[in-house]
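Z., the sequence and structure:
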Amino acid sequence: MFQLLARTVEIDRRRHLPKRGETLPQGEPNIPGSIVYAAVIHACGQIGDSSVIKGVWDATKDIDPYVRTQGLEALKLLDPLGEQSQSKAMAREALYDPRASVVRTASALVLQYKDFEAVPILRYVADTRPDLAYPLQETLKQLT
């Protein structure tokens, strides 16, 4: 599946584009790539193919919030305990995401990992993004 992905989607280029806060608008040329990318990442998570975890980490940095969410959801399955430090780092980084739904998914992953190092980030984001204050405060209560 990842070979198909590498042949059809310019992953490296997409990773260097700024993260979008909104879903890609109709007619956006990156939409077909997002569909393939998200489907492959989702399938890898469901199959449990941890050999592609680096590719899943890359997905958490994509331009499209849907792909980023699929990356975080796949991490929940591929590295459920956060044994790989890079998985925890990706979850922490996603707490700063411009898309609120991605931040909520990341906070659930931080909680799943029992990642106490994410507490200052959770506090900061809760203080600076009023729309996320309640769910992040709930995560903090459960984590601390």
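The chain has one domain: 1-143. The chain has a mean pLDDT of 95.

Let me know what you think.
H.
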